[in-house]
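About this split. The held-out portion is used to measure sequence recovery: a designer receives only the structure tokens and must propose an amino acid at every position. Recovery is the fraction of positions where the proposal matches the reference. Here is one held-out target exactly as it appears in the evaluation file.
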């Protein structure tokens, strides 16, 4: 999922926020895939970012 979010241009902070939200649902006994769909489907629901990545040239 993180990879898919990165190629959409999301910042590392945004990626951590998204993944934390998915993990919170999973911690409550809800299957992440049943709640959000496949990682590819879920990440495609986010708008493409500006492509700026911290630590990448």
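Reference sequence for scoring:
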């Amino acid at each position: 999922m993180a990879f898919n979010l990165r190629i959409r241009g999301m910042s590392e902070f945004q990626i951590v926020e998204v993944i934390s939200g998915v993990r919170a649902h999973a911690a409550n006994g809800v299957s992440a895939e049943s709640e959000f769909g496949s990682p590819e489907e879920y990440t495609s629901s986010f708008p493409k970012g500006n492509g700026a990545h911290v630590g990448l040239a």
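Annotator remark: Residues 12-27 form the longest helix (16 residues).
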